[in-house]
Amino acid sequence: MTDVARPSPAAGRPQTAPEDPPTNPKRKVLTASLVGTSIEFYDFYIYATAAVLVFPLLFFPEGDMMAARLQSLATFAIAFVARPVGSWVFGHFGDRVGRKATLVASLLTMGVATVAIGLLPTYAQIGVWAPLLLALCRFGQGLGLGGEWGGAALLATENAPAGRRGFYGTFPQLGAPIGFFLANGVFLVLSQAMSDEAFLAYGWRIPFLLSTVMIAVGLWVRLSLHETPAFAKVVASGETSKAPMVEVFRTSWRAVVLGTMIMVATYVLFYLMTVFSLGFGTDAETGLGYERSQFLVFLLIGVLFFAFFTPISGLLADRFGRRPTLITVTVAIIVFGLVMGPLMGSGGTVGVMAFLIIGLSLMGLTFGPMASVLPELFPTRVRYTGASAAYNLASLLGASFAPYIATWLAGTFGLAWVGGYLVLVAVLTLAALIISRETSKDDLDDIPSQVTGRS
């Protein structure tokens, strides 16, 4: 016997369609994603600059300067170990609670760690505790940035109109050159405005403490946002993941591996162009011997090309597709790796500027599409965790020890070996791109759990 259907208590009442989730104005979305990542990258890069110019002198025992620089670069690498942890912690809440609240929490985490660095006592004051506390704060920076990028990328791409995800995704990516420009610009102004003695005594702390003001601005922008429409639909349907990280590695582990390999050359390129080049360019004993302020100006000029080509790359990725754009750029990176030794090793201003401009232009072209490529590999319910995991595992493999490895290779074998190192990782990225599929036409609400199994 079958049950007889009974009329529901609501029978006869007028039915109303469920309300669409509130949307964010496009201008506010782009501003929030740009401002937030600019602040986060500023915080991250002032450490990178100080790790080359300041920390070897103040946070490690006096003696062999090369040893102190390598120890300082080792603390720099700690953040890249922390970033996958941050992607797990913040990705969990980003896929469970929401993009907005998690982005606010990641910004605060990064900010507190950065301001704390500006207040640390030096090795001369507290001995071995100084580098240990420095390493702890660096871990906090990595933790915050590990949750920042994924949320900012999703904020832009999940709010983007059809056919414009590549371009919208370049706005959080623009935070990298803007943050780098601000970080090195502040160091340049301080270097010009005070003596070396005053700079080492207290001036180096100013960039870290200035982060307080920038964080307040970032919080004000982000707290006014609504949740992204894609995630709001998942919440409304009751399909949020209970354990996003577990689900990602159970259902989309191939996408994590593929995304990591696609991103790894980008990381190596950037940290060779910035942290390594700054150390090598200003080292009077084993490098080129430029004045600190002069080489910072060189870098700031190069970063303008990074910023210029980042949005162009998004337009190209929307027009021609993600794979063709990135495959072409990665081949160009391989060629650049083969010639970087002669360019940088010439020591002349023309050769050094050509090295920085070409390398950082390629950086903009390869970095720009990543905020659309990586999120497009994962379904909405685990997209924050999946995109963050791929991005930050690539940072661990490609960036954490890149300055250290490059410094050792240059000092032991010469600059040509540094170029060979870049060629090697670019070949890995090229292979990943060749076996990947095009995702530019996908609907973000209809991406399968196992992306690599779909044609």
Q: Segments where pLDDT lies below 50 for 5+ residues?
A: 1-18, 451-455
CATH superfamily: MFS general substrate transporter like domains
Distance between termini? 46 Å
Order of helices and strands: HHHHHHHHHHHHHHHHHHHH
CATH class label: Mainly Alpha
Can you tell me the number of structural domains? Answer: 1
- Gyration radius, to the nearest Å? 23 Å
Helix and strand content put the structural class at mainly alpha
**Strand residue content:** under 5%
Tell me the number of helical segments per DSSP (H or I, 4 or more residues long): 20
Shape: globular
Work out the helicity level. over 70%
Largest sheet: none
CATH-defined architecture: Up-down Bundle
* Strand elements, count: 0
Average pLDDT, rounded to a whole number, is 83
Region (Disordered): 1-25
InterPro entries: MFS, MFS_dom, MFS_trans_sf, MHS_symport, Sugar_transporter_CS
Main location: membrane
Organism: Nocardiopsis coralli
Q: How would you characterize the overall build of this protein?
A:
With 455 residues, this protein is mostly helical. It has a single domain, classed as Growth Hormone, Chain: A, CATH 1.20.1250. 74% of the residues lie in helices and 0% in strands. Helix 13 packs antiparallel against helix 14. It is found in: Cell inner membrane.
Distinctive features:
455 residues, mainly alpha, 74% helix, globular, disordered N terminus, disordered C terminus
